[in-house]
Specification:
Structural class: alpha/beta
CATH superfamily of one domain: Ribonuclease H-like superfamily/Ribonuclease H
Low-confidence stretches: 1-11, 158-172, 321-330
Strand content: 5-15%
Largest sheet: 5 strands, mixed
Number of helices: 12
Radius of gyration: 22 Å
Bound molecules: zinc ion
CATH architecture of one domain: 2-Layer Sandwich
CATH topology of one domain: Nucleotidyltransferase, domain 5
Order of helices and strands: HHHEEEHHHEHEEHEEHHHH
Strand order of the largest sheet: 6-5-4-7-8
Distance between the termini: 47 Å
Helix content: 40-55%
Number of strands: 8
């Protein structure tokens, strides 16, 4: 018989804003927290991997280390998304906390006000955090078991995004970006921005996120025909057949509705070039942000990932934005 996982109460799994502020009340506390998370048994040189390192005094501040081999000086920020940022780690951790706990996400405008930085800085922090979240999707195990897959369109008019209309859009729908997602029944979700909804792209994308042994549930879109999985069940939305026996795509559709509510309510506009980063954020929150995990564990999981990611330079982010270099109020 299947044993039920212990249900943790809200009190056990979340910490209040007050508790959070107390935990990271000083830069020193935030630094020690991140060092413990990154280096369980003493600092390791991020430049050459040497384990023999020394604490060194620089500007009389805690947190500087020197490598015994390459003699480079480093801190816990070196080689992470926190590198070359003048923003205090307390603010970075607060941003991580907000991204994890705000169900629909947080806008750079709001974050800027809450932590007292410019909107430009807040936007940059959020983009770096989202970049660190992409790793959960890359490194995560493949989805297995019963999987619901569906595509949705972001951008364009709402009426064009209704399920019954999606079938007529075909390739290259103007002003819209297609996102293909898959969700384990009662489990993890994965989603990717796709350039077209053709059969080849759809098959390749799904194969990259789902195990071959899976049973796939989709709507009747032609692109799903002949998908390379053990079983494929179809729900005919055009016939208003939303639940065909066990075949339904309700769970993945509810993921889209959260994504779209965030888009409408918090971000107003996802820059299409950055859409994948936003999609990562939503997937991360759905996968890692489950209420049965302690908030410390969730923050740790995000910071842990951030610590292993290279920082993204500001120029790099802007070049992704395209020729106009405009930052969106997202
Ligand atoms: Zn070194």
């Amino acid at each position: 018989m299947k044993t039920k996982a212990k249900f943790l109460s809200v009190k056990e799994t979340t910490i209040s804003f007050v508790e959070f502020v107390r935990k990271f009340s000083t830069e020193h506390k935030a630094l020690v927290y991140l060092e413990k998370l990154r280096w369980k048994t003493g600092a390791i040189c991020p430049h050459c991997g040497e384990k023999k390192t020394y604490k060194c005094n620089r500007k009389n501040e805690y947190g500087y280390h020197e490598c015994s081999k390459c003699h480079k000086v480093f801190t816990v920020r070196t080689g992470t998304i926190f590198e070359r940022s003048h923003i205090p780690l307390t603010k970075w951790l607060y941003a991580c906390y907000k991204v994890i706990t705000a169900r629909k996400g947080i806008s750079s405008v709001q974050l800027a006000v809450e932590i007292g930085v410019t909107q430009k800085s807040a936007w940059f922090m959020l983009q770096r955090i989202r970049q660190s979240m992409s790793q959960t999707i890359d490194a995560d195990r493949m989805l297995k078991g019963i999987i619901e897959a569906d595509a949705t369109y972001i951008g364009g008019k709402e009426k064009n995004k209704h399920a019954s209309k999606k079938l007529h859009l075909g390739r290259g729908a103007v002003g819209k970006v297609a996102v293909l997602g898959a969700k384990e029944r009662g489990g993890k979700v994965s989603a990717t921005v796709i350039l077209d909804t053709g059969k080849e792209t759809v098959h390749k994308t799904l194969s990259g996120m789902i195990e071959k042994s899976a049973t796939l549930m989709t709507d009747e879109h032609k692109s799903y025909e002949g998908v390379p999985f053990a079983s494929h069940k179809i729900v005919k939305h055009a016939l208003k057949e939303f639940v065909n026996g066990m075949a339904s795509t309700n769970e993945i559709e509810s993921v889209w509705s959260i994504l779209k509510r965030g888009w409408m309510g918090v971000y107003h506009h996802f820059s299409q070039k950055h859409l994948q980063l936003y999609v990562n954020e939503f997937c991360f929150r759905l996968n890692e942000g489950k209420c049965d995990r302690h908030i410390d564990e969730r923050i740790g999981s995000l910071c842990g990932l951030s610590l292993s990611k290279d920082h993204m330079s500001y120029q790099n982010l802007l070049s992704r934005e395209g020729d106009n270099g405009l930052m969106r109020a997202a």
